[in-house]
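Question (not urgent): is this output format expected?
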Amino acid sequence: MPTPVNVIFIFAAALAAALLGVWHARRRAARRRGTGPLRSLVILRPCPEEWSADAIRGALTRLGTVPNTIDEREDPRTGASFVRVELVDGRRLLFIGVGSAYVADPAAIAAYAGNARVRAALSTHTAWSSIDLLGGCSD
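Got this back:
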């Protein structure tokens, strides 16, 4: 006859296995939907720089990556430029260029930076760009 400690251990192991199974199932489903994790690289710039579909296509080709589709848009209200790229393997990239500060008060945020180079970049930038990998990437 199992002891109470054994019953608790068996229950805990079964619960852990069930939770792990749910986590794996959700992760697989998110990858299929392309809603997996977002990876983003933000570049603070001293002046605006727009992304162009031709420049991105050329850069990706030089890297040996073949873009399947490239869609270029601009937000007329903010002037932000967007280039959405879908690669042959299904991964999606989003390039964003914005001609305004990344945060409302850059100097106030810069005061919290411990590194002098980070502080300078935060306090003097007037534009930013980002490259986002949307879903379908491994952890």
